[in-house]
Amino acid sequence: MSDVGVGLMSIFNCARPLLFENKDATYPYSIIGTAFIVRFRGRHFIVSAAHLLRNFEAHQVRFQYHPSVGDFVPWRSWYCLDGTDRDDPDQYDLVVFAVDDAALDYSRFKGYEPYNLLEIDALTIYSQRSSYAFRGFPTSLRTTDYDLHRIETQSVVGDGKYLGPSLRMHLHVLKVNRVADIGDFDGLSGSPVFQINHVDDRYSNEAFAGMAILGTAAAGTVEFLAHGRVVSALMKITDGDVAPSIKDR
Prior knowledge:
Blueprint: E1 15-21, E2 29-40, E3 43-48, E4 61-62, E5 75-80, E6 95-99, E7 115-116, E8 131-136, E9 143-145, E10 150-152, E11 156-165, E12 171-176, H1 179-182, E13 192-198, E14 204-216, E15 221-226, H2 227-238
Parallel strand pairs: 2-7
Antiparallel strand pairs: 1-2, 1-4, 2-3, 3-6, 5-6, 8-11, 8-13, 9-10, 11-12, 12-15, 13-14, 14-15
């Protein structure tokens, strides 16, 4: 559980389990990690960690309108932005799916709308005085109903203290509170991370902080990709500076 106020909980409704359609008639979807949907410059994008596609093909990706229904957001192209620093590849652990906005039906979100991400979010200053929270779908909370042939997922909203920059380029570290409530951190990759600023006893505001890509329950830490990396990627896509990926990873 998290100490984030009830009024701010809606910011986490952008997160979903990352699904991959497979050829198993009994269990047609594999669940690997987390993804989230944003609205940016009037368009919509699904964002996750690129390493989650390692054992799948991009065309298998499915993202639910609502986490309790099998109704999927239509997407039309995907982007994986590689870099040149092969000694520090985690800074490129980002995959973006461009939503087919013409086919998008907002009524199907039913309260689980995209997060409104702005260019200015890349300028948020990380601070140890702020709180940090994330929402993900850990593997440890996943159950399988063999009688109904259904896999059920549960999300967790975790919070933590900002420790500072990671030794890895463009990554930052959180010390997670109440690790036992989460269990194994497997499945948290791709979770959106938010900075919560407490203005006074009655008012708090949020800012997008980045995306979780690494974490271990043993250490009690999560490392997240900086907000600037996500915003920069979306700017390049919307500016037409990068072409969609044309083959699966």
